[in-house]
Design a protein that fits this description.
Blueprint (H helix, E strand, L loop, with lengths): L1 H11 L1 H58 L2 H11 L4 H32 L7 H16 L2 H6 L3 H22 L8 H25 L8 H10 L1 H8 L5 H12 L1 H34 L4 H21 L1 H8 L6 H27 L4 H57 L3
Helix pairs in contact: 2-4, 2-5, 2-7, 2-11, 2-12, 3-4, 3-12, 4-5, 4-9, 5-8, 7-8, 10-16, 11-12, 11-16, 12-15, 13-15, 15-16
C-alpha cells in the first residue's frame, strides 16, 4: 500500500503529468507516421515500382543534406533556450525571432547550393522535376517551429499539425498517384502540406502564446549561428554516413536498389521514431531535473531491448506485406536493427546527458570523427558488398557513436568522485 501510494503521488505531480501528456501526444503522432507508410508504401511500390520509388528516395536523400543545414541543431539549442526561459515573454519573443530569421538565411544559402546541383549534375536530369519539387519539402520543414513547441513542452501541437500533413499526403497519394509517371506528385503533396502547416503553426504561436516576430539585429543572428555551431555539426555530420549511404546505393547500384534499401529502412523507422519520441519528450524535462537521468536511462534501455526483440520476430511478415523479396533483405534488416539499438545509447548518453548539460563541443568532436569514417567507408562498402555493405556502414557508425557517448558519460561521472 505504501508503494502504491508513492506511485500515485509521483503520477499526480505536474511535471510527470506533462511528461505523460507529451509522451502520448508524440506517440500518437509517431504511431500514425509509422502506420501510414505501411498503407502507402506497398501501394507506391506496386504503382511506381522500385525504379521510380528509388528516384524519390534519391531526392529525399539529397534534400536531407540541406535540411540538416536549415535545422542547424535548433531542435536542441532553441529548445534548450526556450525551456530555460519559458516564463519570460520578452526572452521568448527574442528566441523565436532570432531562430526564425537565422533559419531563413540558412534556407536561402541552401537553395543557392541545391539548384545548381539539380540543374547541372547529369544523374539528376532524368527526374529533374521530382528533385526541384523536393525543395518545397525543404521550405516547409525549415519554417515548421517544432523547436518552439518542444521547448514549451506542448507536444500536442506538433502532433495535431503533423497529423494534418501526413493524413493529407496519404489521402492525396491514393487519389492522385495512379501510374508510374505520377511520381512527381509525391514531393508536391508532401512539400505543399509542410508549407501550409508551417504557416498555420506560426499563426497558432501568435494567437495561443502571444509570441510575435521582432526583427533582431544582425549581430544577434551571427551570435546565434556561432553559439549553435557545435550542435549544427552534431546534427549535420551524421548525414555524411547516414544519408550518403542511401545516396551511394542509388548512384552506384541503381535507383531500384535505392528503392529496396529505402523501403527496408522505412520499416526500421518503427524503432527509430519511437526512440525519437522518448528522446524529444525527456530532453527538456532532464534539463530541469538532471537527477532523474539515471532511472530514465536504465529503464529505457531494458524496454527498448524487449521492443526490438518483438520487431525482429515479425519482420518476415512485414517484408512480405510491403512486397520486398530482394536477396539478403533479412540480413540488411538485422544489421540495421542492431544499428538502431546502438543509436539509442547515443540518444541517451549524448543528447539527454552530454548535450543537456552543455557538453556540445565534446559531442561534436566524436560525432565528426565517426561521421567522417562512415563517409569514407560508404563507397567501398556499397561497391563491393551491395546492400549488406550499405547496412554495415550505417551499423558501424551508429555503434561507434553509441559507444563513444557512453564512454564519455562514464568519464564525466568518474570525475565527480575524483578529489
Amino acid at each position: 500500500m505504501i508503494a502504491l501510494s508513492k506511485i500515485l503521488t509521483v503520477l499526480s505531480s505536474k511535471d510527470v503529468k506533462k511528461l505523460i501528456e507529451n509522451f502520448f501526444s508524440l506517440s500518437i503522432l509517431k504511431f500514425v507516421n509509422l502506420i501510414l507508410p505501411f498503407v502507402t508504401l506497398p501501394y507506391l511500390i506496386k504503382v511506381l515500382g522500385f525504379q521510380h520509388y528509388g528516384a524519390i528516395i534519391l531526392g529525399l536523400s539529397l534534400i536531407n543534406y540541406f535540411q540538416s543545414i536549415t535545422d542547424y541543431g535548433f531542435n536542441l539549442s532553441a529548445t534548450r533556450e526556450i525551456a530555460k526561459h519559458r516564463h519570460s515573454k520578452k526572452q521568448l519573443n527574442f528566441i523565436y525571432s532570432k531562430t526564425l530569421l537565422s533559419k531563413f538565411f540558412l534556407l536561402i544559402f541552401s537553395l543557392l547550393l541545391i539548384f545548381p546541383i539539380i540543374l547541372f549534375v547529369p544523374q539528376f536530369h532524368e527526374d529533374i522535376l521530382v528533385y526541384l519539387l523536393m525543395c518545397l519539402i525543404l521550405i516547409g520543414q525549415t519554417f515548421f517551429p517544432e523547436w518552439f513547441f518542444r521547448g514549451m513542452e506542448q507536444m500536442r501541437y506538433i502532433t495535431i499539425l503533423d497529423l494534418i500533413i501526413k493524413l493529407t499526403f496519404t489521402i492525396g497519394t491514393f487519389l492522385f498517384i495512379k501510374e508510374k509517371s505520377d511520381y512527381w506528385i509525391y514531393p508536391l503533396l508532401l512539400g505543399g502540406g509542410y508549407i501550409v502547416v508551417a504557416i498555420q503553426s506560426h499563426f497558432l504561436i501568435y494567437k495561443k502564446f502571444q509570441i510575435s516576430f521582432n526583427l533582431p539585429k544582425l549581430r544577434n543572428i551571427k551570435k546565434t549561428l556561432k553559439e549553435g555551431f557545435p550542435l549544427f555539426v552534431n546534427q549535420f555530420t551524421p548525414t555524411l554516413f547516414n544519408n550518403t549511404t542511401n545516396f551511394m546505393v542509388g548512384m552506384v547500384i541503381g535507383k531500384s536498389a535505392a528503392g529496396v534499401f529505402g523501403s527496408i529502412r522505412q520499416i526500421i523507422q518503427l524503432l527509430t521514431v519511437f526512440n525519437s519520441v522518448v528522446s524529444t519528450v525527456f530532453f527538456p524535462y532532464l534539463i530541469r531535473y538532471k537527477e532523474k537521468f539515471y532511472v530514465y536511462s536504465k529503464l529505457y534501455i531494458i524496454f527498448f531491448i524487449i521492443l526490438s526483440f518483438f520487431i525482429a520476430l515479425f519482420h518476415h511478415w512485414i517484408l512480405e506485406w510491403i512486397g520486398i523479396h530482394a536477396k539478403n533483405a533479412s540480413e540488411v534488416f538485422y544489421i540495421l536493427l542492431l544499428g538502431v539499438m546502438s543509436i539509442v545509447l547515443y540518444s541517451i548518453y549524448s543528447t539527454n546527458y552530454l548535450i543537456s548539460r552543455g557538453h556540445d563541443k565534446l559531442v561534436m568532436k566524436f560525432t565528426v570523427l565517426v561521421s567522417l569514417i562512415g563517409f569514407i567507408l560508404s563507397y567501398p562498402l556499397v561497391k563491393f558488398l551491395g546492400l549488406v555493405g550499405a547496412a554495415f556502414n550505417i551499423f558501424i557508425c551508429q555503434f561507434l557513436l553509441g559507444g563513444l557517448a557512453y564512454f564519455n558519460f562514464r568519464k564525466l561521472e568518474r570525475k565527480k568522485y575524483d578529489f
